[in-house]
Hints:
This protein is mainly alpha-helical. The protein has two domains: 12-65, no CATH class; 79-149, Orthogonal Bundle (Arc Repressor Mutant, subunit A). It has helices spanning 4-9, 12-45, 48-65, 79-93, 101-111, 116-126, 141-149; strands at 129-131, 137-139. It has a two-stranded antiparallel ribbon. A hairpin with a 5-residue loop joins β1 (129-131) and β2. The longest helix has 34 residues, at 12-45.
Amino acid sequence: xxxxxxxxxxxxxxxxxxxxxxxxxxxxxxxxxxxxxxxxxxxxxxxxxxxxxxxxxxxxxxxxxxxxxxxxxxxxxxxxxxxxxxxxxxxxxxxxxxxxxxxxxxxxxxxxxxxxxxxxxxxxxxxxxxxxxxxxxxxxxxxxxxxxxx
Length: 150
């Protein structure tokens, strides 16, 4: 037997598919290693960065455990900021009680809210948006009403 008949008889197609998959996977891994090689060389040249990275990660973990503080006083907003906060309030109504910030930001981007990143920071500083213990965020409707009416 020769040709296509021999390939079919001895599982040649399956062996070819496995071989192509192995070669392609090896090339992907090799390209990833080459793309990240500069980071490894940088750490080899400067091992202090490893200690800094772990200490920064530890500090960030401690900060995430603390609730955001409003400082005990209401944040005073300009009229433009109040309008943007109202837009965020409308967007939050479409979400569940506990929602992720990336989802809220995506809705703000789609809706055309101006400077949605910096305005989200205002919401976080004021305490209108606050984190729950599971990695999501909640909306404080009472504080929102106080700040808007102030």
